[in-house]
Amino acid sequence: MKYSVSSRDQYKAYLLHIKPRKVYAVLGMVFMLIALFVIYLELSRKGFGKTSLSMIVAAIYVLFSIYIWPMYSMNKLGKQTKLKGGEIDLFLDKDFFTRSTEMSNAKMLYKDIFKLKKNKNYLLIYINDGLYIILPKRNSELQDAAKQIEENFTKNS
Predict the structure, then answer these.
(1) pLDDT at residue 143 in the model
(2) How far apart (Å, rounded) are the C-alpha atoms in residues 19 and 57?
(3) Is the dihedral of CA 129, 134, 140, 146 positive or negative?
(4) pTM of the shown model
């Protein structure tokens, strides 16, 4: 089966990749609430001071570096790349899958998959902790392929 991965797909996969476990998400929200509370105390006590300004700048920086900059970088790299992979051909077998483009051909055994991460739109197939293959679940054929990869990974791991 053939599919392609757009810069939007890459960005959405990146967000799935960095998605924290629930414990870290709760801790992040607690820290943000504490920061907002400190800013509120600073503003109500003595007006707009250095502490509140630095916390606002830090919050903007975190949001920018996690959400805005990666999308800009992925779009820029997509425009700069002259040898675009175009369509990706995916072949599934019971012990391995093959992923082929115009530039490369890779065969991966299910037992060599490091881990899988998924949501309703994407399956990330990890080669190691930071390198993954994106499989969008755009249609029923790709959804079935994702399900088959998950089942074979579970059997062979």
Answers:
(1) 94
(2) 23
(3) negative
(4) 0.72
